[in-house]
Amino acid sequence: MLLGSPGVGKGTQAQFICDAFHIPQISTGNIFRAAIQSESTLGLLAKSYSDRGELVPDELVCSLVKNRLDDADCQSGFLLDGFPRTIPQAKALEAMGVSLDHVIVLDAPLEEIVIRLTGRRFHPASGRTYHLIHQPPKVVGKDDLTGEDLVQRSDDNEDVVRHRLDVYQRQTAPLIDFYRKQAEQGKTKIAFLSGLGKIEEIQANILNVLKG
Ligand code: AMP
């Protein structure tokens, strides 16, 4: 499981871990974004929360994850990215009989996070992400491969970003202590890594933890 504030790099690292270990990425944020794009009932509901930077209610998220974890591709392992995000979600995960081999906590300073999130752009059809400063596309505002327009996530504007970070501090950061205690009891392993620096360096640090 990857734990850390929005914009710390969980999504980027998740893709790498899933490729390296041949496991599916369970990203509740991606599930909600896909539902929003398809304008399903779930999507409309999720949008009403995510546009304001609020969390979708625990019960809904947990039943969604429970169903997803029943799928055949999850039977020999998976990576959780963006779930659990509250203590009740973590308890629900335990109640599903899931034990986590590793909890990786990624950390970066608040102002860096704000710059990362507000500068983030993506290509809706492929999910490819860019950053105005850190990873600009070859042509301003256009996807490198298709030339199609890049867009900003509706929850990446500065006001919503600050609110999401506040929600993270209040509702998600307490999970760090929750899993630290679980690690002390031998129920999981926890590692604290910096989310700053080159993507490849962070990948190497993660591999060290997962293979160690
Ligand atoms: P993310 O891409 O992980 O930042 O998620 C985008 C948005 O989806 C969040 O701001 C929430 O509104 C919603 N979301 C994603 N994961 C969860 C979760 N585990 N619990 C509640 N809401 C979530």
Order of helices and strands: EHEHHHEHEHEEHHEH
Mean pLDDT: 95
Beta strand count: 7
Q: What strand line-up does the widest sheet have?
A: 1-4-7
* Strand percent estimate: 5-15%
> What gap, in angstroms, lies between the N and C termini?
16 Å
Question: What Rg is obtained from the alpha carbons, in whole angstroms?
Answer: 17 Å
Structure description:
The protein has 212 residues and is α/β, with parallel strands linked by helices. The chain has a single domain (2-23, 76-211), classed as Rossmann fold (3-Layer(aba) Sandwich). 48% of the residues lie in helices and 12% in strands. It contains nine helices and seven strands, in the order E-H-E-H-H-H-E-H-E-H-E-E-H-H-E-H. The chain has helices spanning 10-21, 28-37, 41-50, 58-69, 87-95, 110-118, 158-172, 174-184, 199-211, and strands spanning 2-3, 25-27, 79-81, 102-107, 120-122, 129-131, 189-194. Strands 1-4-7 form a three-stranded parallel β-sheet, with helices on both faces. It is globular and about 50 Å long. The model has no long low-confidence stretch (mean pLDDT 95). The protein binds adenosine monophosphate.
